[in-house]
Amino acid sequence: IGATGVLVRHDALPVPGGEVGKVGEVVDGTAAGDAFRAALAVAVAEGVDVVKDSRGLALAAAAGAHAVSVPGAVPSLPTRNDAENLLPEHRRLPAPAETEACETDAALRDDECPLRFGSRLNSMKERPDLWRGRERLDVLGMVRRLSEVEGIDLVDFNYPQHLDGRKPKAVTGALRAAGLAAGAVAVRFPASRFRAGAFTNPDPSVRAAAVDVVAGACAWAQSLDASAGVIVWPQFDGYDYHLQVNYSDAWRRGVGAIRAALDRDECEGVKVSYEFKPTDPSSRFALVPSTAAALALVRDVNRPGRFGLTLDAGHLVAAGENPAQSAAMVADAGALFGFHLGDVHSKLAAEDGLAFGSVHAPGALELVFWLRASKYRGHAYFDTFPEVEDPTREAAYNVRAFKRMWSWAARLERDGIRDVLLNHDAMTSLEMQEGLIDLTKP
């Protein structure tokens, strides 16, 4: 159409709702054009060249196809997941820039993992008899020891425990010398001040102090250029007895304190994520005990793109949840900022911190599959507790295990696992996994 614009074409996509392999029924055309244009706008906002790259129009066509399958205007507007499930091979658009990987995906084979890896720094003080270095295993000595682990790229620091009293220049110098980068600054509220709660404490001066701690962590995250920002574990925000807490008031206090922290100048431009744990010796019942409750917290805090969740596989199992399902839910909500990996024996309230995939190998594979499917590009952090094992060997094993499962997930994708999932076909899925998961492989 010449100087007046550009005409771009894309094949129509099937209307959902029919039997497998068949097209569903067109129910109502209302809002189909609105859905199409909205999806196209999303693609443009995420950097897709809709003239040269067919994925933008594909998403738009899928949104329109979904819209005509549902009566009404607003009810027919699809979620992103609704539209992407209609795309060929269910491909997703690239993730937003805030979750960029260390390498561009285009430079990688389909089965190569683009994530960067971190591992629990405090584990490096275990088994000092195996440490060949000359440094004391203080914080910077542990950084040096962690640098010997093949495949580890990032260091997460606890705040204030690891960083209080240190200078940013000394820490960044130690990271540079070790060939590592900062992953996140993880808030650990000191028990001496926050034993009765941090964000939800009845005392407003204590809540204000909790806000100060998060602001201090944000300042460190800025100084260290921590790629995952700040992760908050609110281990004391909970209760032990029935009729101990007013749940509604505690929730409102918590939301208000988190908002106050995010709105501090120190936290401007820093991603802050909440790492819930359903139960802990510090608080037998957490005020945020599940993935659904954590998503409700993200909704109520209402700082999109700045406040999200870091999920922990051990915490999810302790909550009676499936880590893979939680990862998919939170990713679909655009709130998956980080993931802590490990394994547990599923005993009540136990957090074993075992090597990744060592107990629940199929569950670990499914988790990696959904992280891959959701285009997760945060760093993979191993929150494990090797107290008897050599911590460097254990960390290296975790990296190899994750990368191995990433390649297995790619193979399942190529073999058509998504159609199997759409049909809820357990036996075909098990047959596809047969021979894939073998813990005897190096």
Strand content: 5-15%
| Beta-strand segment tally | 10
The secondary-structure element order is HHHEHEHEHHEEHEEHEHHEHEHHH
Poorly predicted runs are 18-22, 89-106
Strand order of the largest sheet: 1-10-9-8-6-4-3-2
SS-based structural class?
alpha/beta
Tally of helical segments: 15
Mean pLDDT: 87
Report on the structure:
With about 450 residues, the protein is α/β, with parallel strands linked by helices. Residues about 20 and about 90-105 have low confidence and may be disordered. The longest helix is centred in the last third of the chain and has 24 residues, at about 390-415. It has helices at about 30-45, 55-65, 80-85, 140-145, 170-180, 190-195, 205-225, 245-260, 290-300, 315-320, 325-330, 360-375, 390-415, 415-420, 425-435, and strands at about 115-120, 155-160, 180-190, 230-235, 240, 270-275, 285, 305-310, 335-340, 380. It contains 15 helices and 10 strands. β9 (about 335-340), α12 (about 360-375) and β10 (about 380) form a beta-alpha-beta unit. The chain is globular and about 65 Å long.
